[in-house]
Amino acid sequence: MKKMAVAIMGVFVAGGALAAPPDWSKVPARKMTLFYPGQASLEWIMNKADHSSADDIVKKNRGCTRCHDSDANEIGDKIIKGQPVGNSKSVLEPNPISGKVGWLAATFQAAHDGNKIYFRFEFPATAVTGKKLDDKNEVKLTMMFDGGGTVDGANLNGCWATCHTDLRSMKDAKDDKKTKYIKDANLDGGKFMDLMQWRSGKGEKPVDGHVTSERTMTGGAALTKAEGKKEGDKWVVTFERDLAAKAKGDHSIVAGKTYNFGFAVHESHSNARYHYVSLGYQFGLDQDQAGVKNYINVQKQ
Q: Where would a tag sit more exposed on the chain, N or C end, judged by fewer CB atoms within 10 A?
């Protein structure tokens, strides 16, 4: 029987099979701050002249959350207003957007059942501000993760390994169609980011893709369900995904590995770099890592 995709009340279901989600009231919740990065790129972050923590990241192997888990909101507030940040006092948003907030308070949850993994994201609904760059979608949520240490530096900065200064709308952009990429990527060798995206637009299907030397919004087959809805003054988005890889553009998620991830929210019909992003985090199945600040233990429910 051919694999079919069925849309039911805003829910995307691959194969037409509905699986029971976990009881989210019993799943540990992690509070995270999504902040507005402006034109901050991997190159900016890793340059000591720009970023005071660059040495700590490289020489002491310290992830971004070690320093910025508690002040990402302050950074976002400065960037969105066009105020200078970092050693170089860089203005990372040359065109401040009136009325746009500098950060969002998000809640992240994850669980698995031995066959599938489930992700849940909750964040506030904001007033629409700025130019509508994506007419179809008021909100998009994107999550990226590596294959368990397969992308250089992702253990320190999550999905920032895909964000470069020469991308469209960034400082050194020369091609208005150039999207995220990973240097020296290798799809066959696992050096890529698995990518899932939910879109709020009517009739829009979620994305199951990956990032290699370019961003590809197709090719994955492990995402089985994606749902998003506005509940009062907040958005709730969930992903359901097979633990096993189903195509070349998927990573398998297995016990004993630590996966590096990050996620981003586009709101106000925004696109490209005009989003809110997380710091770099990690997850693993049924294994605790005491003392690792950015790690989430995804437990079987």
A: N
